[in-house]
Each structure stands twice: as C-alpha cells, then as structure tokens.
Amino acid sequence: MTHRPQPVGATTVRASTALAAALALATLAAWRTALAGPPFLTDDPEPVDYHHSEFYVFATDDQTAGGKSVALPAFEYNYGILPETQFHLVVPYAESIPRGGPSASGIGDVEVGIKFRLFDETADRPQVGIFPMAELPTGAARAGLGNGRTWWRLPIWAQKTLGPWVTYGGGGYVVNHAPGQRSYAFAGWLVQRDVGPKWTLGAELFDQGADVVAGRGRTILNVGGYYNFTPTFNLLFSAGRSVAGAMHTVAYLGLYWTWGRARHDASAASTGAPPRWSLARR
Q: What are phi and psi of 32, to 5 degrees?
C-alpha cells in the first residue's frame, strides 16, 4: 500500500479540529438537558395537585459559538402521585448541529424527577420545595445527543405570591462525572405577573457555572410567559440570551394540557386566599 506524504502540521490540525468538535458536542449535550420549569430555566417549588396530570409538547433551541442544539419534538409529563409530591418525566427527540461538523438526531437523554413541597406558603412565609432530577444516558453521547452517563440535578426552590405578582427562584448543584463534563452550581430568580385573564408574562436571570472542562459559565436573561386558550390548555413561550460568560441564545415554545379530578382547597376557602394550584404555572 502506498501512503501519501502528509503536509507538515496536518495531524496537529486534525487533532485540534477533532478536539474543538468534541467540546462543541459536549457543550450542546450538557445544555440541552439543563432546561427546568417550562417555559423558563428557573423552576418553582409547586408540585402538581394530587391525582392531577400535566402534559407538554414543546421545542427548545440553543445556539452557541460551537453550534446549535434543538429538541423537536419533546414531551413532558407530570403527575401528582401523593399529596405535595409530583412525578416528572421528559423525553426529547434531539438534534445536534455543531459548526464545522456533521449533525446528528435521535432520542436524547430522558429526564426523571420528584418534586416535593416542604413548606406551604403563608402570609409571612414563601412555599419551599426540592426537585431532584436524574438525566438518564439514553442519547448517543458521541453524536452530541446525550451525556454518556447518568447525572444529577439537586435544587431547592422558593415561591411567594403577591396579588397578581408571583416571584420564585433558588439554586442548587449538578453532579456530573461524564468524560469532558464537570459538576457546577446554578441559581435563578424570576418575577411574573398576570396581565388580564389570558396572559401571564415574566422575566428571569439564570446563572450557572461551567459545565464542561475548559468551558465557561453563563448568566442568561430570559423573558416569556403563557397564553391561556382555556383553563386547561395553554401556549408557553420564552426567549433569551447570555448577558455574561459563554454566549447562548435560547428559546422555548410549547403547548400545555392539564386534567384531573376536582379538588377542594380547604386552606384557601378558610382564609380567602387564592388556591395554590394554577393552571398556567406549576
């Protein structure tokens, strides 16, 4: 077999290109599964009511210097398995489009979790809850569609309602030991307001540390909300970009349904406060 002579530095160029592509794929895979409370990155402590269900069909988009990551379609299901306790499942169909490399698509990493409210909201105290999640390695990591190993997201969230205003946020830690990835802290806070009977609008600031080796963290300003077609059917949307750190431009668009047997909120009836359960926010 005859071997062609390689130009000086060709091997180095190939190695550098492969390393850059690998880092881009790792960044895309890590961010795609980091989304939290639809349609925002920050989540809240409020679980789905006991014996109630929520279902979302949605799309996400994340553009970075390394390429583009899309989930379309993706599905989320939440169910109130016990009082103050919600089961959570997300199954995405993902597409990874790195700059200068081949794109790939297929099933992404499946997300499962349990949201548990620790304290109810009172006139003087916010409600507080935890929402541990596991990202299962169902996506192909080498194609940029998954993480390669199970990783964990461990947050605590708090929320307070003030008339038509709702504010919530908190933070936590991601534990990720997959090759090329790293563990990091995150935090976010959001303010939203009901604008008439149909619209709810909000804005958040979300910050997280670097999630890949040799990467940078980012702080994202995100705006969005809900449009209520009916009490049980909503449109959700958000868009934002980094204001510090690594550049990300993100967007979310989804449809939401809820159903379940009627419940009586005795605490609300006795105090005159609005029911804890809101169709447009979890």
A: -55, -35
Instruction: Provide the whole-model pTM.
Output: 0.81
Contact in structure between 49 and 83 (CB atoms under 8 Å): no
* Furthest C-alpha separation in the chain: 88
Q: Which residue has the tokens 């979310």?
A: 252
Distance between CA atoms of residues 181 and 212, nearest Å: 4
For residue range 169-217, list pLDDT tens digits in order.
999 999 999 999 999 999 999 999 999 999 999 999 999 999 999 899 9
Partner residues linked to 90 by β-bridges? 76, 111
Of the candidate CATH numbers 1.20.1530.20, 2.40.160.40, 3.40.50.300, 1.10.238.10, the domain formed by 10-271 belongs to 2.40.160.40
* Sequence-ordered strand ranges (E) for 99-217: 104-107, 110-119, 127-130, 133-136, 151-162, 165-175, 184-195, 199-208
**Of the candidates 216, 212, 144, 223, which has an alpha carbon nearest to the alpha carbon of residue 190?**
223
**Domain boundary assignment for the chain:** 10-271
